[in-house]
Amino acid sequence: MSLIILGTASHVGKSTIVAALCRSLSKRNVSVAPFKSQNMSLNSYVTKDGKEIGIAQAIQAFAAGVEPKAEMNPVLLKPKGDKTSQVVLLGKPYKDLKIGDYYKETDYLLNVAGESFKKLQSEYNNIVVEGAGGAAEMNLYERDIANILLARKLGLPIIIVGDIERGGIFAQIIGTYELLPDDVKKNVCGFIINKFRGDSQLFSEGIKIIEEKTNLPVVGVLPYTKISIPSEDSLSLNDKKPVGFPVKIAVIKLPRISNFTDFEILENYASVEYLDSKDLLLGYDCIIIPGTKNTVDDLIELKNNGFDEKIKEVRLKKIPIIGICGGYQMLGKTIIDLGYESENEKTIEGLGLLDTTTTFESYDKTTVQVKRTANKIGPILSSAGEAEGYEIHMGYTKLNNTKEAFAGEGAVSEDGLVIGTYMHGLFKNHDFSEALLKYLYSQKGCEFTGIIKDESEYSYDTLSEHFEKNVDMKKILSYFN
């Protein structure tokens, strides 16, 4: 059997709860896999066979102890701006569609999602399904392939999750339940209250009210916790607060920032701040320019805010500057767009910190897992060793009069302090992150003691333990029978 986790809104914790459930079942030696029919996110992951899916489903798969697959997230929407998204279907680019045109494909996409679910269920038997956004968007019921239409098609038990931290938990939970279509509503079997701050025993009266109004159980009240698993989308950037470490790292919050989860491991060892391009860059020990869904347009916006002059000032102070994917492309001298990155053909100057030229000459996208050895250039790469990650990008970057940062990829300045690479997941390699942090700490006259090994596995186990401690696990498991 399988189970659906629906939410009262976006960012209420559905992804985390699915990950927790997958881990809890896996620890019981139950075969399980995650599934989300449609995801809208610029944080994505590349599977072993070169398919692109939402990062949340990859994390949930790791929590379940299985390899991520395209069927776990058959439809991925990557917003490009101007009400247009790239549709990634079963891991490969399908079309760029405006929202009105996307809805015309509802029947086809729902069928793809249904077939993907069947394939997963035949292999893993137990599937934890995640909805998207709020389930009770009544104006979308006839085209909602992530919630209502999927729930109708699968006919599975449903748990609804609400976020008490937002306030209005009774309206969230009871309102969502009552507004569901009758044929979906009948499958709801319980509720989870998420992000409770304080003594959850004080909410006993609230539980009683919800259960009396719905005749259904509240199967858990989860206290707010900060457990280090990657975030799903940019909404979580608003929750990030820098911690008082001696080293300060600035990540540029590009308008179309993608895969910012690349840097979340650094938040455990440095004060990481996500800055708008209008902010000053002085006072930081390292600058990171992340990936983006649209390198050309984001670079133009950066330059309109004077970012090119700000970054040159940082460069003169010998502060490390690292560009990942689109950020790497921006660090170069020239970007040539033949009409595939933005609507019109154009050639623009990059930030000029690396002697490279990037050309967008087709709609094709590179999606591949990689393993590369850092070249011994400068104080960071010299002790970075081997790194593995994945590439997701359009465009090809040519090195002119500059050296490779890694064997076969990337670029690095002569002093080794400007590094560009297409490798997402770079900082999850302990050797690279330790090399960077040891250098940054040494520049502050401090000693860096090292990164905790196997941190992700520890986080998954901690998450499942937190989950099981605060829910009626016996009742939840009964829904899978």
Please outline the helices and strands.
Layout lengths: L2 E5 L6 H14 L4 E4 L2 E3 L3 E3 L5 E3 H10 L10 E7 L2 E6 L2 E7 H5 L2 H19 L1 E5 L17 H7 L3 E6 L5 H11 L2 H4 L2 E9 L7 H11 L3 E6 L24 E5 L4 E2 L12 E5 L10 E4 L1 E2 L2 H10 L2 H10 L4 E4 L1 H6 L2 E4 L8 E4 L6 E5 L5 E8 L4 H4 L4 E8 L2 E4 L11 E2 L5 E4 L8 H14 L11 H16 L2 H6 L3
Parallel strand pairs: 1-9, 1-10, 2-9, 3-6, 10-11, 11-12, 13-15, 13-16, 16-18, 18-26, 19-21
Antiparallel strand pairs: 4-5, 6-7, 7-8, 14-17, 19-20, 21-24, 22-23, 25-26
CATH architect. name of the largest domain: 3-Layer(aba) Sandwich
- Mean pLDDT, to the nearest integer, reads 91
Q: Quick one: how many beta strands?
A: 26
CATH topology of the largest domain: Rossmann fold
Helix/strand class: alpha/beta
Radius of gyration: 23 Å
Oligomer: single chain
Percent helix range: 25-40%
- The outline comes out as globular
Number of structurally distinct domains: 2
Strand content: 25-35%
Q: Helix count, per DSSP? A: 15
Largest sheet, spatial ordering of strands: 2-9-1-10-11-12
Family: Belongs to the CobB/CobQ family. CobQ subfamily.
Active site: 325, 424
Protein name: Probable cobyric acid synthase
Pathway: Cofactor biosynthesis; adenosylcobalamin biosynthesis
